[in-house]
TrEMBL record, chain A:
One Pfam family here: RCC1
RCC repeats: 206-269, 274-337, 338-392, 446-500, 580-629
Alphabetical list of PANTHER family matching this protein: RCC1-LIKE G EXCHANGING FACTOR-LIKE PROTEIN
GO terms, biological process: positive regulation of mitochondrial translation
Protein name: RCC1-like G exchanging factor-like protein
High-level lineage: Eukaryota, Metazoa, Spiralia, Lophotrochozoa, Brachiopoda
Assigned GO CC terms: mitochondrial inner membrane
SUPFAM superfamilies registered for this protein in UniProt: RCC1/BLIP-II (SSF50985)
Molecular-function annotations in GO: guanyl-nucleotide exchange factor activity; rRNA binding
Automatic annotation (TrEMBL), chain B:
Classification of source organism: Eukaryota, Metazoa, Spiralia, Lophotrochozoa, Brachiopoda
Region of interest: Disordered: 326-388, 429-469
Protein name as catalogued: Mitochondrial mRNA pseudouridine synthase TRUB2
PANTHER family, alphabetized: PSEUDOURIDINE SYNTHASE-RELATED (PTHR13195), PSEUDOURIDYLATE SYNTHASE TRUB2, MITOCHONDRIAL (PTHR13195:SF0)
InterPro entries documented for this protein: PsdUridine_synth_cat_dom_sf, PsdUridine_synth_N, Trub2
Protein family according to the UniProt entry: Belongs to the pseudouridine synthase TruB family.
Biased composition (Basic and acidic residues): 327-348, 369-388, 430-448
Start and end residues of each Pseudouridine synthase II N-terminal domain: 97-231
Name of the encoding gene: LOC106179521
């Protein structure tokens, strides 16, 4: 069969082409050149190639084999479809293949399991419409009736009949065809382009999420409060909001801490040292001496967007900020080599310096540096006191001691960091907690100690009569709880996370008894007063009671889920499981639970976070969570 | 089960819920059609019902007694060659619930005859279903499934097992929260807490949002992967979209390439009947296999709400009561208890009297009939032979046969009979109706009373099979499979 010279020679009707395209042999066509551009599919990688070899400049039919028999055609066609006739390029590279008619961007990627071949396979000589007629007959052996009909039309070359399924084509059909062809182009282009959303081995990025009360700028989201085209500011963010400030400014988030209405972020820029940024209430200079514009004498009492806090580092590029904590109106920053820096209110000595009567804390540029030789393990701030735990397990406190929260044996304010004794003497403390007036500590043996406020049964098991405990006391723990690994103390409620059982033999015995639920640790126990997390019926408990682990996702499908860390705000709890889920419960007046509502939550409920949480910091009415992306 | 001697028995016995393995690339509607066709074909091959007898007065007069001769002959008006097959395709009532879509495979529950109604109990029980969904990374389509129009392609080399598992774990824990919110209970109440503590909770509403109890990657051969999903209220599109979401969360795109339902509550692949084995015998076997799984206890909506005495949820209105399934069960019971009575009545009034009259005549007339049969039809004589057998079976289980008589298309033919016959045939049902009327009312009252009584006193908490904290039917597969896979070291 002689190859026709042009597409028009076959009947000047696009309908037949359309049909052929439908059959999947043709992917695009260019009527202005009267050419037919076939495409080939690689069966292995599903990539499709439009057109012939890149350097082809002549119409395809000139490249046809001279005397192809019909059987050869079908064989050829099947060969083409099954062999990898697409151009294979190494992973991650891109190239532009220029066809004579239009540039085509192809990013075809070799799959790793198929091995890498650097050779570029030439596309087989392509077939024209005439070969399609052959191939149609080859293909239409198992096609249904109308296909047969059409195939018959195509085979016999009765193309002037057009598509028997459509009425005789007029101008409207032509217009439609034009639109249709652009759509075909778009669709085929989609098949060519391979998007790359992640590199071959992407690092998991750190993400920060904030939620809670936004009115004072503590969330660092300025768009909430700027009235650009809005009638009211957005005061409450009741579910997690991605905090993009650090990413957009090329900071890498490291940690964060929440105070009463303000937040402090520790971040790092590549090639620079650690930076600390603050946002929210700055009434007592707790997030630094913020003057804007500089030298104007205009000091900012509220920041709605994070601004760097300048600390007098000796080696700003080397020094790392290891810990940060925020109280009611003061901030404590611990570094690895340069000691501890404190900012903000010092009315009770919480900054670790002498209390000055009548000191003005607003727009006060004073930053107190407390030299600290030992390596620091943990820094926490209560409302008006500070506690620093060293790696050696010793605890230093300063600040308000009205409820005995400094644990120094008196009710006075301590204006310098002082070593805490009491029952802590001789113990190596590994974890401390205290958001308000009650303090809890855990030793490396799994013992728990407590001091401070006892008005709400927090320390009822050791001191039934006194509402204040001024020195640390060892809290008796039942064998059922086992070792304590983490503690949390809010305003009126306390919680702990247990670890391994104290005596292995006992736990093994329990295991033998098939009480397997007890041997898996990482359970949360709560006591005190308020929303404890066991429904609205239980509002106070002097002894630790277990929150059923099923509420933290330990069910039949995921039987080994554990709570790894527990933190508390004044009246909320936040627990992180080993699966990276955050569960919160407690008071929710300002949406600080991140559950999408402002109703109080009486049992742990998962916060919908699109990342795996690593650390949560609870303020009084807002929460910051730092996590890692899944991929 | 009674012995099946013919199409009548078979058609009557085909009644209940059964479970098939749906093949791929076949729409459920077409499948049902096909199955009906198969059944119809098979039923038409079985021996049909006995032809009714008809007393015919011959025109000639007996020479000895000078009286007109009456003979009893089979009523050829009801012959299959006249009225067609005993069972037409349209008479087979078949339906399904939670249909798999065209390209889905796996366990598919179907009902036949009364089973169609029983399926609704399954719907209300909201059984947990287990799917194996396979997906392919690297491209997205408009329908989330293989056949759809391409949306975009993307690279997928960065996806490895641990990353995929992380994404899947996120999806699962997100749904765990979801199920507490869909219980229909105030989340701030103590009841909500108790419900949450008791384990996984079924959603309140019949047609609610889908809930996924468990997602797990069971196979990962990039770019192909398979996830196991335990879910309620899902549909095929949702499952396909789940794969799409997994792909998006893994920083690539993914398309669903296959959905296979391996479990529907207690119905597993072991119960599923293959289409190639689809015949009356196997269906009957399957129905009896599925019957214990349809018991009331197994289908009780297990929400453990009965535990909470005095909670506001216990004041259940009639509509919610029905939703919970107690009323349904009661209805079913009432149905079963009523049926035999009704049928007995039917036999008392019509069948017995008929047989008595026939018996008197048949003794005298059979001889004549055999001597000079009016119609020398081979088939009919065959049927007469069958007839005797058939009568025996009729006496053994009259109840069933009458049930079939109710269904038989022969009844419709009666209106084409002559006026006498018409009167005769219709007399019995009319009588029955008048006789029954008082009884029927009483029965109705009784059943209503029973229903009310049951509604007020039914045990609302049935704790089901003990399965740890999980409410619902026993769902062993995921854990067991995980252990097996670990043994085989398939999953790392």
């Amino acid at each position: 069969m002689a190859a026709p010279t042009s597409y028009h020679a076959l009947g000047q009707n696009a309908n037949i082409l359309r049909f052929i395209w439908r059959k999947g042999f043709l992917s695009s066509m260019r009527t202005e050149h009267c050419l037919v551009t076939p495409f080939f599919t690689c069966n292995r990688c599903h990539a499709k190639r439009i057109g012939s070899s890149p350097e082809a400049s002549l119409p395809y039919y000139t490249k046809l084999p001279q005397t192809p028999g019909s059987q050869d055609h079908s064989m050829k066609l099947s060969n083409v479809r099954t062999s990898a006739s697409c151009q294979v390029i190494h992973r991650g590279t891109q190239t532009n293949i220029t066809t004579p008619h239009r540039p085509l961007q192809t990013v075809l990627l070799k799959r790793p399991h198929e091995g890498v071949s650097s050779t570029v396979n030439r596309v087989q000589p392509l077939h024209t419409l005439s070969t399609h007629t052959k191939s149609l007959s080859w293909k239409s052996r198992y096609s249904v009736s109308h296909r047969n009909l059409l195939a018959g039309v195509a085979c016999e070359g009765v193309c002037s009949l057009g598509n028997p399924l459509l009425p005789h084509s007029g101008g409207g059909v032509k217009r439609f065809m034009a639109k249709w062809m652009t759509r075909v182009y778009d669709r085929e282009r989609k098949k060519e382009i391979v998007y790359q959303y992640a590199s071959a081995e992407p690092a998991r990025s750190t993400r920060v999420y904030v939620w809670g009360y936004a009115g004072v700028g503590a969330l660092g989201l300025p768009t909430f409060l700027r009235l650009k085209g809005k009638k009211y500011p957005k005061l409450v963010q009741s579910f997690p909001h991605r905090f993009m400030f650090l990413e957009t400014n090329n900071y890498q988030p490291i940690s964060a801490a929440c105070g009463n209405g303000f937040t402090v972020f520790v971040a790092k820029r590549s090639g620079e040292g650690h930076v600390i940024l603050g946002t929210g209430i700055n009434s007592d200079s707790q997030i630094g001496y913020q003057e804007a514009p500089k030298g104007s004498g205009r000091f900012l009492d509220y920041l709605i967007e994070p601004a760097p806090i300048l600390l007098p580092f000796q080696f700003p590029e080397k020094t790392k900020i290891t810990h940060v904590a925020c109280g009611r109106a003061h901030t404590v920053v611990a570094t690895d080599t340069e000691g501890v820096f404190t900012l903000g209110n010092n009315s009770c000595g919480q900054c670790g310096r002498k209390i000055v009567e009548g000191e003005e804390y607003s727009h006060n540029p004073l930053v107190n540096k407390v030299p600290f030789d030992e390596e620091i393990r943990q820094v926490i701030c209560g409302q008006d006191h500070t506690a620093i735990l060293t790696q050696s397990g010793q605890l230093y406190t300063c600040g308000l001691g009205a409820d005995g929260q400094t644990g120094l044996g008196h009710h006075d304010c301590a204006d310098s960091l002082t070593l805490v004794r009491g029952d802590l003497q001789g113990e190596k403390i590994v974890h401390i907690a205290g958001r308000s007036d009650t303090m809890l500590a855990v030793s490396d043996k799994g013992d728990m100690f407590g001091w401070g406020n006892n008005e709400y049964y927090q320390l009822d098991c050791v001191e039934k009569d006194r509402t204040q405990v001024t020195e640390p006391r060892r809290l008796p723990i039942s064998d059922k709880i086992g070792k304590v690994t983490q503690v949390a103390a809010g305003g009126t409620n306390c919680g702990l996370v247990n670890g391994q059982s104290r005596w292995f033999c006992i736990s093994y015995f329990i295991y033998l008894l098939d009480v397997t639920d007890n041997i898996k640790r990482g359970e949360v126990y709560v006591w005190g007063y308020g929303i404890l997390g066991k429904g609205p019926a239980l509002d106070q408990s002097p002894v630790p009671t277990r929150i059923p682990p099923i509420l933290f996702g330990r069910n039949d499908f995921t039987p080994d889920t554990k709570v790894t860390s527990l933190t508390s705000g004044l009246s909320q709890f936040a627990a992180i499981t080993d699966r990276g889920d955050v569960y919160m419960w407690g008071k929710n007046k300002t949406g600080a639970l991140g559950l999408g509502t402002r109703k109080d939550q009486f049992f742990p409920l998962k916060v919908s976070l699109p990342s795996m949480a690593e650390a949560v910091s609870c303020g009084v009415d807002h929460v910051v969570c730092i996590g890692k992306s899944f991929c | 089960m009674s012995v099946i001697r013919g199409a009548v028995d078979a058609f009557g016995a085909l009644n209940g819920v059964f479970c098939i393995y749906k093949p791929k690339a076949k729409h459920m509607f077409h499948l049902v059609n096909e199955l009906k066709f198969k059944l119809h074909k098979e039923l038409s091959l079985l021996p049909g019902p006995m032809l009714d007898k008809r007393r015919v007065t011959l025109p000639s007069v007996s020479e000895t007694t000078n009286l007109p001769i009456t003979v009893t002959l089979p009523d050829l008006r009801n012959h299959p060659r006249v009225i067609g097959d005993f069972v037409m395709k349209e008479d087979i009532k078949m339906s399904f619930i939670d249909p798999l879509h065209k390209y889905g495979t796996g366990v598919q529950l179907m009902g036949i005859a009364d089973g169609c109604g029983q399926l609704q109990r399954l719907v209300k029980a909201k059984l947990v279903q287990v799917y194996h969904i396979s997906g392919e990374l690297g491209y997205a389509t408009e329908t989330f499934s293989e056949g759809g129009r391409l949306v975009e392609k993307s690279t997928w080399y960065h996806v490895n097992r641990s990353r995929l598992d992380r994404v899947i774990a996120m999806i699962q824990s997100a749904h765990q929260k979801h199920q507490y919110l869909l219980t229909g209970v105030d989340i701030q109440s103590q009841e909500a807490y108790n419900m949450a503590v008791s384990g996984m909770v079924r959603p309140l509403y019949e047609k609610g949002k889908p809930i996924i109890y468990n997602v797990k990657c069971i196979d990962f051969k990039p770019p192909h992967f398979t996830v196991e999903v335990h879910s309620v209220n899902e549909d095929m599109m949702y499952l396909a979209k789940l794969i799409h979401d997994i792909g998006m969360s893994a920083k690539t795109t993914a398309t669903c390439t296959g959905i296979r339902r391996v479990r529907y509550g207690n119905f597993t692949l072991d119960h599923a009947l293959l289409i190639k084995n689809f015949d009356i015998e196997n269906i009957l076997e399957n129905i009896s296999l599925c019957k214990p799984l349809m018991s009331w206890k197994k289908l009780q909506p297990q929400r453990k709400i009965g535990r909470l005495q005095g909670s506001p949820r216990l004041k259940i209105t009639d509509s919610t009561q029905q939703l919970l399934g107690d009323g349904q069960k009661e209805q079913m019971e009432a149905k079963h208890s009523e049926k035999p009575e009704e049928l007995k009545h039917f036999t008392d009034s019509s069948e017995l009297s008929e047989s008595v009259t026939d018996a008197d005549l048949s003794e005298t007339d059979v001889a004549e009939e055999s001597e000079k049969p009016l119609i020398h039809d081979h088939e009919i004589s065959e049927q007469n032979e069958n007839k005797t057998e058939y009568i025996e079976s009729k006496q053994t289980d009259t109840v069933e046969n009458n049930e079939k008589a109710h269904f038989s298309p022969t009844q419709n033919v009666n209106q084409f009979c002559g006026p006498e016959d018409y009167a005769e045939v219709n007399q019995e049902p009319l009588n029955r109706h008048s006789k029954d009327k008082s009884n029927r009312d009483q029965r109705l009252e009784n059943s209503q009373h029973k229903r009310k009584f049951f509604r007020n006193n039914a045990p609302r908490s049935y704790q089901g099979e003990d399965y740890g904290g999980m409410i619902g039917p026993r769902l062993p597969s995921s854990l067991v499979i995980a252990k097996r896979l670990k043994k085989k070291k398939i999953c790392a």
